[in-house]
Amino acid sequence: MLKPTLALAAVLIAFALVTPTVSQAAETNSVRVSYADLNLASKVGQHRLQARIEGGARIVCEIEDSRQMDLAVATNACRSDAIQGAQPAYEAAVAAARHGTVEVLGAASIVVTGE
Predict the structure, then answer these.
(1) Angle formed by the axes of helices 69-98 and 2-24, nearest 10°
(2) Domain locations in the chain as residue ranges
(3) Rounded CA gap, 35 and 43, in Å?
(4) In Å, how far are 3, 5, 14, 19, 89 from 9, measured between CA atoms?
(5) 43-60 and 69-98 helices cross at what angle (nearest 10)?
(6) What's the rounded Cα separation, in Å, for the pair 47 and 106?
(7) ∠ at Cα 42 (49, 45), nearest 5°?
(8) pLDDT digits 0-9 by tens, 75-115
């Protein structure tokens, strides 16, 4: 009788440890992605910035043990949202580079945010 009780207690403890991991996904994280060294007027520079934004999304949307299906889905949704959220800043930076707009003492970076 003692063994089933211990097994049940172990399962309940394991479930309690997994639950905080899911709740941590609701936290907002952000990372600054610099493009100061890129020529955004070129396709190569634009592709590199997109890759940096995607890398930033991987950083801010790191959910532990994404091998579980629900966490993997949440991780992918977070990353997609983070990339889409950075798109307006990306497009503005590329447009500024194409039109030769110079921003003195401006921050040549994009903030990628994930929840």
Answers:
(1) 10
(2) 2-114
(3) 13
(4) 10, 6, 9, 16, 50
(5) 150
(6) 22
(7) 20
(8) 899 999 999 999 999 999 999 888 876 554 456 877 878 87
DSSP state of 65: -
- The count of C-alpha atoms lying within 13 angstroms of the C-alpha of 115, restricted to the half-sphere facing its C-beta, is 4
Which positions ≥6 away from 111 have C-beta within 8 Å?
30, 31, 32, 33, 86, 89
Residue with tokens 């579980």: 68
Express each pLDDT in 15-59 by its tens digit.
433 333 444 445 678 999 999 899 999 999 999 999 999 999 999
Distance, in Å, from the CA atom of 30 to the CA atom of 115, rounded to the nearest integer, reads 9
User: Which conformational region is residue 106 in: left (phi greater than 0), alpha (psi within -120 to 50 degrees), or beta?
Assistant: beta
